[in-house]
Every structure is written in C-alpha cells, then in structure tokens.
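Listing 4. Sequential folding, example run.
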Amino acid sequence: MATGTDQVVGLGLLAVSLIIFTYYTVWVILLPFIDSEHIIHKYFLPRAYAVAIPLAVGLLLLLFVGLFITYVMLKNRQVTKKAQ
C-alpha cells in the first residue's frame, strides 16, 4: 500500500510529466501553424532544439541504463567468485 508521501511524489511526477508533454506538443505540433511574429513564440526555444533535446535525453538514458547493467553484471560476477 502506498503511503501519503509516495502518493504526493507520484502526483508530482505525473504533474511534471503532463506539463512537459503539453509544452512539447504545443511546441512541435501547434507552433508551426502560428505566425512567427506572434508573442507566443518568445516562450519556446527554436525548432532545432525540438529534435536535439529529446535525442540528448534519450542518449543519456541509454548511457545510464548501460552503466547500470554493467555494474550489476560486474557485481554478480564478484559474488559468484566469492561463493566458489
């Protein structure tokens, strides 16, 4: 059963994810149809970053997953050597 703190943290993560998803959707899908002189454009980065930022985040995620798997495999190898 989740405690109150777990629920608050989960709700916070959900809220942050929803905000990021909404911002990115407006940035990538809706913004190209709005005139470039419109005031809303000052709240968004240039469109080149719409590809670069998710690419960088994805590469960092793959890096950390790879590092975690490597760490677990090396730790498992050390445990089996001690057992023998």
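-- end of first protein; second protein begins --
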Amino acid sequence: MENGRPPDPADWAVMDVVDYFRTAGFEEQARAFQEQEIDGKSLLLMTRNDVLTGLQLKLGPALKIYEYHVKPLQTKHLKNNSS
C-alpha cells in the first residue's frame, strides 16, 4: 500500500482515485471522478478528451490533471506491466 492505496492504479477503487486527486491538490475536481465513478481501471483508460470534456472540469485544472497525473500514471502502469 502507498498512501493507503494499492501501488498499481489498476487496483484502485473509486475512493482511491478521489483520494489521489485530493492529495494532489484537486479537491474540487476530485468530486467529478467520484460522481462519474472513475476507478483505477477507468482512470488508466481515459483519453485527454475524456478528461477535458467528459468530467466537465474547468480547462486549466483538467489539463494539469491529464498531463501531470493521468498520463504519467498510464505510462508507469504500462512500463510496470510490459516487463
């Protein structure tokens, strides 16, 4: 467990995703992940467009969430599961 969450985002429940974004400073935006029931597997499947338009977030925070959090989590997950 890392910060109370499983180390692999694919194993995260919806509340793990919400807690991750709250911890990252996106308190208001974290609610959108909860409302849309985004768990770890869903998070890893999200595209840039999903984050920018599907969650109905303001553009600035949505861009930061995708570029600095979703995309790196996806890349890390792919690296860890390709070896």
